[in-house]
Write a structure and sequence with these properties.
By secondary structure, the chain is of the alpha/beta class. The protein has 3 domains: about 1-195, Rossmann fold, CATH 3.40.50; about 205-290, N-(1-d-carboxylethyl)-l-norvaline Dehydrogenase, domain 2; about 290-425, Rossmann fold (3-Layer(aba) Sandwich), CATH 3.40.50.720. The chain is built from 19 helices and 14 strands. The strands form 3 sheets. The protein has a 6-stranded parallel sheet, with helices on both faces. Helix 1 packs across helix 3 (about 50-60) and helix 9 (about 195-230) crosses helix 12. The longest helix has about 30 residues, at about 195-230. The radius of gyration is 23 Å and the shape is globular. The structure holds nicotinamide-adenine-dinucleotide. Nicotinamide-adenine-dinucleotide binds near residues 6, 30, 32, 98 and 151. Nicotinamide-adenine-dinucleotide (NAD) binds next to helix 1 and helix 5.
Length: about 425
Protein backbone atom coordinates (compact mmCIF):
# COMPACT_ATOMS: atom_id res chain seq x y z
CA UNK A 1 0.00 0.00 0.00
CA UNK A 2 1.07 3.60 -0.46
CA UNK A 3 1.11 5.27 2.93
CA UNK A 4 1.79 8.81 4.10
CA UNK A 5 2.74 9.52 7.71
CA UNK A 6 2.45 13.15 8.85
CA UNK A 7 4.76 13.97 11.80
CA UNK A 8 8.09 12.17 12.19
CA UNK A 9 8.40 12.22 15.99
CA UNK A 10 8.55 9.28 18.38
CA UNK A 11 5.28 7.88 17.01
CA UNK A 12 5.36 8.91 13.33
CA UNK A 13 8.93 7.88 12.55
CA UNK A 14 8.54 4.47 14.17
CA UNK A 15 5.14 3.93 12.52
CA UNK A 16 6.49 4.89 9.11
CA UNK A 17 9.58 2.70 9.44
CA UNK A 18 7.58 -0.33 10.59
CA UNK A 19 4.95 0.01 7.83
CA UNK A 20 7.79 0.21 5.30
CA UNK A 21 9.40 -2.84 6.87
CA UNK A 22 6.13 -4.71 6.33
CA UNK A 23 6.45 -4.05 2.58
CA UNK A 24 4.49 -0.82 2.11
CA UNK A 25 5.71 2.30 0.32
CA UNK A 26 5.87 4.99 2.97
CA UNK A 27 6.44 8.72 2.66
CA UNK A 28 7.02 10.53 5.95
CA UNK A 29 6.17 14.23 6.09
CA UNK A 30 7.30 16.76 8.68
CA UNK A 31 7.13 20.55 8.66
CA UNK A 32 10.38 20.68 10.65
CA UNK A 33 12.89 21.19 7.83
CA UNK A 34 15.87 20.38 10.04
CA UNK A 35 14.38 17.02 11.04
CA UNK A 36 13.78 16.03 7.43
CA UNK A 37 17.30 17.12 6.46
CA UNK A 38 18.74 14.94 9.24
CA UNK A 39 16.61 11.98 8.20
CA UNK A 40 17.64 12.39 4.57
CA UNK A 41 21.27 12.25 5.73
CA UNK A 42 20.57 9.05 7.67
CA UNK A 43 20.78 10.76 11.08
CA UNK A 44 18.03 9.93 13.56
CA UNK A 45 16.51 13.03 15.23
CA UNK A 46 15.50 10.92 18.25
CA UNK A 47 16.97 7.99 20.15
CA UNK A 48 14.96 4.79 20.03
CA UNK A 49 16.58 1.32 20.19
CA UNK A 50 16.66 -0.36 16.75
CA UNK A 51 15.24 2.69 14.94
CA UNK A 52 18.35 3.64 12.98
CA UNK A 53 18.73 0.13 11.54
CA UNK A 54 15.09 -0.27 10.48
CA UNK A 55 15.05 3.21 8.91
CA UNK A 56 18.35 2.61 7.09
CA UNK A 57 17.25 -0.77 5.69
CA UNK A 58 13.99 0.59 4.34
CA UNK A 59 15.53 3.75 2.91
CA UNK A 60 18.10 1.56 1.10
CA UNK A 61 15.28 -0.64 -0.23
CA UNK A 62 13.47 2.54 -1.38
CA UNK A 63 10.31 1.84 0.57
CA UNK A 64 10.80 4.78 2.96
CA UNK A 65 11.28 8.45 2.02
CA UNK A 66 11.14 11.79 3.86
CA UNK A 67 9.81 15.15 2.75
CA UNK A 68 8.50 18.49 3.98
CA UNK A 69 5.99 18.51 1.12
CA UNK A 70 2.63 17.44 2.54
CA UNK A 71 0.99 17.96 -0.84
CA UNK A 72 3.21 15.34 -2.45
CA UNK A 73 2.86 12.94 0.49
CA UNK A 74 -0.93 13.04 0.44
CA UNK A 75 -1.38 12.90 -3.33
CA UNK A 76 0.57 9.69 -3.82
CA UNK A 77 -0.92 7.82 -0.85
CA UNK A 78 -4.09 5.78 -0.21
CA UNK A 79 -3.89 5.96 3.57
CA UNK A 80 -2.65 9.00 5.49
CA UNK A 81 -1.66 8.74 9.15
CA UNK A 82 -1.67 11.86 11.32
CA UNK A 83 1.02 11.52 14.03
CA UNK A 84 1.62 15.14 15.05
CA UNK A 85 2.00 16.36 18.63
CA UNK A 86 -0.99 17.19 20.83
CA UNK A 87 0.48 19.10 23.79
CA UNK A 88 -1.53 20.53 26.67
CA UNK A 89 -2.46 24.21 26.87
CA UNK A 90 -2.05 25.98 30.23
CA UNK A 91 -5.64 25.18 31.22
CA UNK A 92 -5.14 21.45 30.55
CA UNK A 93 -7.12 21.49 27.32
CA UNK A 94 -5.40 19.74 24.40
CA UNK A 95 -3.85 21.96 21.76
CA UNK A 96 -5.07 20.45 18.50
CA UNK A 97 -3.64 23.19 16.30
CA UNK A 98 -1.03 20.79 14.82
CA UNK A 99 -3.85 18.38 13.94
CA UNK A 100 -5.77 21.27 12.35
CA UNK A 101 -2.72 22.29 10.32
CA UNK A 102 -2.20 18.73 9.09
CA UNK A 103 -5.90 18.35 8.22
CA UNK A 104 -5.79 21.61 6.22
CA UNK A 105 -2.80 20.32 4.27
CA UNK A 106 -4.60 17.04 3.58
CA UNK A 107 -7.74 18.86 2.44
CA UNK A 108 -5.82 21.06 0.01
CA UNK A 109 -3.95 18.09 -1.46
CA UNK A 110 -6.94 15.76 -1.80
CA UNK A 111 -6.90 14.45 -5.37
CA UNK A 112 -8.84 11.17 -4.99
CA UNK A 113 -10.55 9.05 -2.32
CA UNK A 114 -8.31 8.54 0.78
CA UNK A 115 -8.54 7.22 4.29
CA UNK A 116 -7.20 9.63 6.91
CA UNK A 117 -6.17 7.87 10.09
CA UNK A 118 -5.56 9.74 13.30
CA UNK A 119 -2.86 8.15 15.48
CA UNK A 120 -2.20 11.17 17.68
CA UNK A 121 -3.85 11.13 21.11
CA UNK A 122 -6.79 13.48 20.71
CA UNK A 123 -9.88 14.49 22.71
CA UNK A 124 -13.09 12.63 21.95
CA UNK A 125 -14.74 14.31 18.99
CA UNK A 126 -11.52 15.25 17.16
CA UNK A 127 -12.38 12.79 14.36
CA UNK A 128 -15.40 15.01 13.54
CA UNK A 129 -13.17 18.09 13.69
CA UNK A 130 -10.64 16.60 11.26
CA UNK A 131 -13.49 15.71 8.90
CA UNK A 132 -14.82 19.28 9.00
CA UNK A 133 -11.41 20.84 8.35
CA UNK A 134 -10.72 18.59 5.38
CA UNK A 135 -14.24 19.26 3.99
CA UNK A 136 -13.67 23.03 4.30
CA UNK A 137 -10.26 22.94 2.63
CA UNK A 138 -10.73 20.42 -0.17
CA UNK A 139 -10.68 22.00 -3.57
CA UNK A 140 -12.61 19.28 -5.46
CA UNK A 141 -15.70 17.24 -4.64
CA UNK A 142 -13.80 14.17 -3.51
CA UNK A 143 -14.91 11.66 -0.90
CA UNK A 144 -12.73 10.59 2.05
CA UNK A 145 -13.07 8.80 5.39
CA UNK A 146 -11.60 9.57 8.81
CA UNK A 147 -10.51 6.78 11.16
CA UNK A 148 -9.19 6.76 14.73
CA UNK A 149 -6.33 4.32 15.35
CA UNK A 150 -4.79 5.32 18.69
CA UNK A 151 -1.16 4.45 19.33
CA UNK A 152 -0.04 2.49 22.39
CA UNK A 153 3.72 2.18 21.77
CA UNK A 154 6.12 2.93 24.61
CA UNK A 155 9.27 4.94 24.05
CA UNK A 156 12.25 2.66 24.60
CA UNK A 157 10.49 -0.37 23.10
CA UNK A 158 8.62 1.41 20.33
CA UNK A 159 9.76 -0.81 17.44
CA UNK A 160 8.85 -4.02 19.23
CA UNK A 161 5.56 -2.51 20.43
CA UNK A 162 4.66 -1.51 16.87
CA UNK A 163 5.59 -4.90 15.42
CA UNK A 164 3.75 -6.80 18.13
CA UNK A 165 1.15 -4.53 19.76
CA UNK A 166 -1.02 -6.07 22.48
CA UNK A 167 -4.04 -4.79 20.56
CA UNK A 168 -4.87 -2.68 17.53
CA UNK A 169 -7.87 -0.40 17.97
CA UNK A 170 -9.64 0.78 14.85
CA UNK A 171 -12.44 3.31 15.16
CA UNK A 172 -14.02 3.49 11.72
CA UNK A 173 -17.23 4.96 10.24
CA UNK A 174 -18.08 1.77 8.25
CA UNK A 175 -17.06 -1.90 8.07
CA UNK A 176 -15.58 -1.35 4.59
CA UNK A 177 -13.22 1.35 5.85
CA UNK A 178 -12.26 -0.77 8.87
CA UNK A 179 -11.45 -3.66 6.48
CA UNK A 180 -8.87 -1.53 4.69
CA UNK A 181 -7.02 -0.93 7.98
CA UNK A 182 -7.46 -4.58 8.92
CA UNK A 183 -5.76 -5.50 5.66
CA UNK A 184 -2.82 -3.22 6.47
CA UNK A 185 -2.35 -4.65 9.97
CA UNK A 186 -3.20 -8.30 9.14
CA UNK A 187 0.45 -9.37 8.72
CA UNK A 188 1.13 -8.55 12.38
CA UNK A 189 -1.36 -11.23 13.48
CA UNK A 190 -2.35 -9.30 16.62
CA UNK A 191 -5.76 -8.85 18.31
CA UNK A 192 -7.82 -6.13 16.66
CA UNK A 193 -10.83 -4.28 17.98
CA UNK A 194 -13.12 -2.58 15.53
CA UNK A 195 -15.30 0.10 17.00
CA UNK A 196 -16.67 3.58 16.35
CA UNK A 197 -14.44 6.66 16.31
CA UNK A 198 -15.57 8.11 19.66
CA UNK A 199 -14.90 4.82 21.46
CA UNK A 200 -11.45 4.47 19.88
CA UNK A 201 -10.54 7.99 20.99
CA UNK A 202 -11.85 7.24 24.49
CA UNK A 203 -9.94 3.91 24.73
CA UNK A 204 -6.61 5.74 24.50
CA UNK A 205 -7.44 8.16 27.32
CA UNK A 206 -9.03 5.47 29.49
CA UNK A 207 -5.89 3.31 29.06
CA UNK A 208 -3.36 6.03 29.84
CA UNK A 209 -5.24 7.45 32.81
CA UNK A 210 -5.72 3.94 34.24
CA UNK A 211 -1.99 3.23 33.95
CA UNK A 212 -1.12 6.56 35.57
CA UNK A 213 -3.59 5.73 38.34
CA UNK A 214 -1.73 2.45 39.04
CA UNK A 215 1.55 4.37 39.40
CA UNK A 216 0.12 7.00 41.72
CA UNK A 217 -1.70 4.30 43.71
CA UNK A 218 1.50 2.36 44.40
CA UNK A 219 3.43 5.55 45.16
CA UNK A 220 0.90 6.52 47.82
CA UNK A 221 1.14 2.98 49.25
CA UNK A 222 4.95 3.45 49.28
CA UNK A 223 4.56 6.62 51.37
CA UNK A 224 2.45 4.69 53.85
CA UNK A 225 5.07 1.90 53.86
CA UNK A 226 7.70 4.48 54.81
CA UNK A 227 5.60 5.62 57.78
CA UNK A 228 4.60 2.16 58.97
CA UNK A 229 7.75 0.13 58.31
CA UNK A 230 6.16 -2.12 55.66
CA UNK A 231 8.26 -2.97 52.59
CA UNK A 232 6.85 -1.78 49.23
CA UNK A 233 8.72 -4.44 47.24
CA UNK A 234 7.03 -7.25 49.17
CA UNK A 235 3.69 -5.43 49.21
CA UNK A 236 3.86 -5.01 45.41
CA UNK A 237 4.64 -8.70 44.92
CA UNK A 238 1.90 -9.67 47.32
CA UNK A 239 -0.77 -7.72 45.48
CA UNK A 240 0.67 -8.32 41.99
CA UNK A 241 0.25 -12.11 42.24
CA UNK A 242 -3.50 -11.48 42.26
CA UNK A 243 -4.44 -11.86 38.60
CA UNK A 244 -7.24 -9.31 39.02
CA UNK A 245 -4.56 -6.72 39.83
CA UNK A 246 -1.43 -7.88 37.98
CA UNK A 247 2.13 -6.85 38.73
CA UNK A 248 2.90 -4.51 35.83
CA UNK A 249 3.01 -0.75 36.31
CA UNK A 250 3.25 -1.14 40.07
CA UNK A 251 6.81 0.11 40.61
CA UNK A 252 7.05 2.68 43.35
CA UNK A 253 9.39 5.55 42.54
CA UNK A 254 9.47 9.18 41.52
CA UNK A 255 6.25 9.05 39.52
CA UNK A 256 5.50 9.07 35.82
CA UNK A 257 6.25 12.44 34.22
CA UNK A 258 6.92 12.03 30.52
CA UNK A 259 5.46 13.15 27.23
CA UNK A 260 2.07 11.45 27.56
CA UNK A 261 0.57 10.76 30.99
CA UNK A 262 0.63 14.28 32.47
CA UNK A 263 -0.96 15.90 29.42
CA UNK A 264 -3.38 13.04 28.77
CA UNK A 265 -4.77 13.11 32.31
CA UNK A 266 -5.28 16.87 32.13
CA UNK A 267 -6.88 16.57 28.72
CA UNK A 268 -9.24 13.81 29.86
CA UNK A 269 -10.22 15.81 32.95
CA UNK A 270 -10.97 18.73 30.66
CA UNK A 271 -13.10 16.60 28.32
CA UNK A 272 -14.96 15.02 31.25
CA UNK A 273 -15.73 18.47 32.65
CA UNK A 274 -16.93 19.69 29.28
CA UNK A 275 -19.48 16.88 29.32
CA UNK A 276 -20.52 17.60 32.92
CA UNK A 277 -18.38 15.09 34.83
CA UNK A 278 -16.01 15.77 37.74
CA UNK A 279 -13.43 12.99 37.55
CA UNK A 280 -11.84 13.75 40.93
CA UNK A 281 -10.01 10.45 41.06
CA UNK A 282 -7.76 11.79 38.30
CA UNK A 283 -7.09 14.99 40.26
CA UNK A 284 -5.68 12.78 43.03
CA UNK A 285 -3.55 10.87 40.50
CA UNK A 286 -1.99 14.18 39.42
CA UNK A 287 -1.62 15.46 42.98
CA UNK A 288 0.21 12.32 44.13
CA UNK A 289 2.49 12.47 41.09
CA UNK A 290 3.20 16.16 41.61
CA UNK A 291 4.36 15.43 45.16
CA UNK A 292 6.92 12.76 44.23
CA UNK A 293 9.87 15.07 43.54
CA UNK A 294 9.25 17.09 46.72
CA UNK A 295 8.96 13.89 48.74
CA UNK A 296 12.31 12.64 47.36
CA UNK A 297 13.91 16.01 48.07
CA UNK A 298 12.66 15.89 51.67
CA UNK A 299 14.27 12.48 52.19
CA UNK A 300 17.62 13.63 50.76
CA UNK A 301 17.63 16.99 52.56
CA UNK A 302 17.02 15.37 55.93
CA UNK A 303 19.70 12.69 55.50
CA UNK A 304 22.49 14.91 54.15
CA UNK A 305 21.64 17.94 56.28
CA UNK A 306 20.63 20.38 53.53
CA UNK A 307 21.90 20.97 49.98
CA UNK A 308 23.96 24.13 50.46
CA UNK A 309 27.51 23.54 49.22
CA UNK A 310 26.84 19.83 48.54
CA UNK A 311 27.74 18.07 45.30
CA UNK A 312 25.03 15.71 44.09
CA UNK A 313 25.67 13.11 41.39
CA UNK A 314 22.54 12.60 39.33
CA UNK A 315 22.15 9.30 37.48
CA UNK A 316 19.45 9.41 34.81
CA UNK A 317 17.83 12.42 33.14
CA UNK A 318 15.29 11.11 30.61
CA UNK A 319 11.74 10.56 31.87
CA UNK A 320 12.21 6.80 31.52
CA UNK A 321 15.02 4.45 30.42
CA UNK A 322 15.90 3.76 26.76
CA UNK A 323 14.80 7.14 25.48
CA UNK A 324 16.29 10.62 25.09
CA UNK A 325 12.87 12.19 25.75
CA UNK A 326 13.10 14.88 28.43
CA UNK A 327 9.47 16.06 28.23
CA UNK A 328 8.17 16.48 31.79
CA UNK A 329 11.09 14.39 33.12
CA UNK A 330 11.29 14.25 36.93
CA UNK A 331 15.01 15.07 36.69
CA UNK A 332 14.22 18.64 35.61
CA UNK A 333 12.09 19.36 38.67
CA UNK A 334 14.50 17.67 41.08
CA UNK A 335 17.66 19.31 39.70
CA UNK A 336 16.02 22.74 39.69
CA UNK A 337 15.02 22.32 43.34
CA UNK A 338 18.52 21.15 44.29
CA UNK A 339 20.10 24.11 42.50
CA UNK A 340 17.75 26.57 44.21
CA UNK A 341 18.87 25.17 47.57
CA UNK A 342 22.56 25.67 46.78
CA UNK A 343 23.66 22.24 45.50
CA UNK A 344 26.24 21.64 42.80
CA UNK A 345 25.04 19.06 40.24
CA UNK A 346 27.01 16.54 38.21
CA UNK A 347 24.60 14.66 35.98
CA UNK A 348 24.93 11.66 33.70
CA UNK A 349 22.51 9.95 31.33
CA UNK A 350 23.39 7.41 28.63
CA UNK A 351 21.55 9.27 25.82
CA UNK A 352 19.56 12.30 27.06
CA UNK A 353 22.37 14.76 27.89
CA UNK A 354 22.10 16.77 24.66
CA UNK A 355 18.34 17.26 25.16
CA UNK A 356 18.84 17.97 28.87
CA UNK A 357 21.39 20.72 28.13
CA UNK A 358 18.67 22.69 26.32
CA UNK A 359 16.47 22.64 29.44
CA UNK A 360 19.04 22.69 32.28
CA UNK A 361 22.18 24.35 30.85
CA UNK A 362 23.75 25.53 34.12
CA UNK A 363 24.99 22.23 35.55
CA UNK A 364 27.99 19.98 34.95
CA UNK A 365 27.40 16.96 32.72
CA UNK A 366 29.53 13.89 33.38
CA UNK A 367 30.78 11.46 30.75
CA UNK A 368 29.79 8.39 32.77
CA UNK A 369 28.37 7.30 36.14
CA UNK A 370 31.79 7.13 37.79
CA UNK A 371 32.66 10.72 36.97
CA UNK A 372 29.20 11.81 38.17
CA UNK A 373 30.09 10.11 41.48
CA UNK A 374 33.53 11.81 41.74
CA UNK A 375 33.75 13.73 45.05
CA UNK A 376 29.93 13.66 45.37
CA UNK A 377 28.28 14.05 48.76
CA UNK A 378 25.44 11.86 47.51
CA UNK A 379 24.11 10.15 44.41
CA UNK A 380 20.47 10.33 43.37
CA UNK A 381 19.10 7.73 40.95
CA UNK A 382 16.40 9.40 38.88
CA UNK A 383 15.94 7.07 35.88
CA UNK A 384 16.25 3.29 36.04
CA UNK A 385 18.63 2.73 33.11
CA UNK A 386 19.84 -0.87 32.96
CA UNK A 387 23.50 0.22 32.98
CA UNK A 388 23.02 1.73 36.46
CA UNK A 389 22.00 -1.71 37.74
CA UNK A 390 25.31 -3.12 36.48
CA UNK A 391 27.69 -0.53 37.96
CA UNK A 392 30.80 -1.54 39.90
CA UNK A 393 29.58 -0.22 43.23
CA UNK A 394 32.98 -0.60 44.92
CA UNK A 395 34.37 1.77 42.31
CA UNK A 396 31.46 4.18 42.75
CA UNK A 397 32.05 4.16 46.51
CA UNK A 398 35.73 4.97 46.09
CA UNK A 399 34.91 7.95 43.83
CA UNK A 400 32.47 9.54 46.29
CA UNK A 401 33.23 11.96 49.09
CA UNK A 402 30.59 10.28 51.23
CA UNK A 403 29.01 6.97 50.05
CA UNK A 404 25.31 7.85 50.21
CA UNK A 405 22.81 6.74 47.60
CA UNK A 406 19.23 7.91 47.22
CA UNK A 407 17.57 5.44 44.90
CA UNK A 408 14.44 7.04 43.46
CA UNK A 409 13.63 3.95 41.39
CA UNK A 410 14.40 1.07 43.78
CA UNK A 411 16.94 -0.51 41.44
CA UNK A 412 19.28 -1.90 44.13
CA UNK A 413 18.91 -4.41 46.93
CA UNK A 414 19.10 -2.45 50.24
CA UNK A 415 20.92 -5.22 52.08
CA UNK A 416 23.59 -5.63 49.39
CA UNK A 417 24.12 -1.89 49.22
CA UNK A 418 24.66 -1.63 52.96
CA UNK A 419 27.04 -4.60 52.90
CA UNK A 420 29.05 -2.79 50.21
CA UNK A 421 29.38 0.10 52.62
CA UNK A 422 26.76 2.55 51.37
CA UNK A 423 24.30 4.58 53.32
CA UNK A 424 21.31 3.66 51.18
CA UNK A 425 17.81 5.12 50.99
CA UNK A 426 15.09 4.08 48.58
CA UNK A 427 11.33 4.43 48.12
CA UNK A 428 8.96 2.65 50.53
CA UNK A 429 11.67 0.34 51.89
CA UNK A 430 14.10 0.41 54.77
N1 LIG B 1 5.63 9.49 22.44
C1 LIG B 1 4.90 8.46 22.82
O1 LIG B 1 5.38 7.58 23.55
C2 LIG B 1 3.47 8.34 22.37
C3 LIG B 1 2.80 7.11 22.52
C4 LIG B 1 1.49 7.01 22.09
C5 LIG B 1 0.84 8.11 21.57
N2 LIG B 1 1.51 9.30 21.46
C6 LIG B 1 0.81 10.44 20.86
O2 LIG B 1 1.24 10.55 19.51
C7 LIG B 1 1.29 11.93 19.12
C8 LIG B 1 2.70 12.27 18.65
O3 LIG B 1 3.56 12.13 19.74
P1 LIG B 1 5.15 12.16 19.55
O4 LIG B 1 5.74 11.83 20.87
O5 LIG B 1 5.52 11.36 18.36
O6 LIG B 1 5.35 13.72 19.24
P2 LIG B 1 6.66 14.45 18.69
O7 LIG B 1 6.59 15.83 19.21
O8 LIG B 1 7.85 13.62 18.94
O9 LIG B 1 6.45 14.47 17.11
C9 LIG B 1 5.48 15.23 16.45
C10 LIG B 1 6.03 15.63 15.08
O10 LIG B 1 5.00 16.24 14.31
C11 LIG B 1 5.58 17.28 13.53
N3 LIG B 1 4.49 18.19 13.09
C12 LIG B 1 3.76 19.03 13.83
N4 LIG B 1 2.85 19.66 13.04
C13 LIG B 1 3.03 19.19 11.79
C14 LIG B 1 2.40 19.46 10.53
N5 LIG B 1 1.38 20.31 10.44
N6 LIG B 1 2.87 18.81 9.45
C15 LIG B 1 3.88 17.94 9.53
N7 LIG B 1 4.51 17.64 10.69
C16 LIG B 1 4.09 18.26 11.80
C17 LIG B 1 6.59 17.89 14.48
O11 LIG B 1 7.55 18.65 13.79
C18 LIG B 1 7.17 16.64 15.14
O12 LIG B 1 8.29 16.15 14.42
C19 LIG B 1 0.82 12.72 20.35
O13 LIG B 1 -0.55 12.94 20.23
C20 LIG B 1 1.10 11.78 21.49
O14 LIG B 1 0.27 12.00 22.60
C21 LIG B 1 2.80 9.44 21.84
Amino acid sequence: MNICVIGTGYVGLVTGAVFADLGNDVICVDNDKEKIELLNKGIMPIYEPGLKEIVQNNVEDRRLTFTTDINKGVRISEIIFICVGTPAKNNGETDISYIEEAAKGIGKALNEYKIIVNKSTVPIGTGDFVREIIEKNKEKDINFDVVSNPEFLREGSAIQDTLAPERIVIGAPTKEVAMKLLELYATLGRPMLITDIYSAEMIKYASNTFLAMKISFINKIANICESTGANISDVTKGIGYDSRIGSSFLNAGLGFGGSCFPKDIKSFLHTAKKFGHDFNLLNSVIEIDNNRATHFMNIIREKIGGFKGKTIGILGLSFKPDTDDMRDAKSIEIIKMMLSEGAKIKAYDPVAIENAKKIIPNIEYAKNSYSAAYKADAIAIITEWREFKLLNMEKIKKEMKRPVIFDGRNIYDPEKMRKTGFEYYSIGRR
